[in-house]
Specification:
The chain has 3 domains: 3-69 and 174-215, Sandwich (Immunoglobulin-like), CATH 2.60.40; 72-166, Immunoglobulin-like; 217-278, no CATH class. The chain has a 5-stranded antiparallel sheet, with no helix packed on it. Strands 9, 10, 11, 12 and 13 form a 5-stranded antiparallel sheet that branches. Strands 6-5-15-16 form a 4-stranded antiparallel sheet. By secondary structure, the protein is of the alpha+beta class. It contains 4 helices and 16 strands. The protein is elongated. α2 runs antiparallel to α3 (240-260) and α3 packs antiparallel against α4.
Length: 285
Amino acid sequence: MAINQLSFSVCLDCSGNKYSVTDTSSGSPSAPITAETFTITYPSDDSVTLDLLANNDDSLDGNIMNISPLQSTSVTLSFIPPSLGSSDYELYIIYTDSNGDLTYAPITATSSLTGDYPGTAALILAAINAQVGNTSVTASYNQQDQNIITLSGSGFSVAATTIENTSLAFGRRNLIIESVSSPLITDGKYTFSWTLTDGSGDSQVTNTSVTESYFLCNVECCVRGKMSDIDVSCDCIGDKKNEAAIEAMLMLQGIKAAAACGKDAKADKLLEGLQAICNNECKSC
């Protein structure tokens, strides 16, 4: 079964200057993934495309993007030996190789050892170690746990939790994309596009998912500062500092409302005005 819906969400950590991308896709890959990219388009319309298979650092105008996708240190896989005839066992192990590149290793083992847990486990272990034996990922089997194979190491993911009868439960990774060139991420509209190709030949399928987000780290920080400076003890009317703070808050809410309604031009205009206030470029303030 191929991935039938590629989808994700993006959460911004303003203080850490990071995008956290959470994969919410459904379905399983029909074969090892052959191409996978993640593209970020900035408010300036510049963009950077990250090759998730290569896992290389990419840069745009001094903004370095780092991806830290693989976090597993231990994964257990369950299996059952054949009850009659033979059974096939399949999984994908995704790990970072010695060059720092993501590698998708397809594992296939066949057992005709009826009811033999240790013997079937040995065949599966041999298939795993033949693929990843030169990496930090190791596979082991303890007869006391009868139907469990354990993978240990660092920086890997597994595309199956149960490997009985080739049943795959695809466990994808999430991404942390970090910009390290500036204190805060630029305000404005961002477009994120995730494209993934799996399968081969006539069964090859390419899925693309796109999401848009309006990030307002800088102006939100500015508005919080202005609101915290309001003098609640002042009983005078028309205090300019208080009025400026209230105006900034209303403009911020206006930006969010316009962006939520798809009124990008209105959101951009309000953002430009609020940035002028925050930069003390607005003479009426």
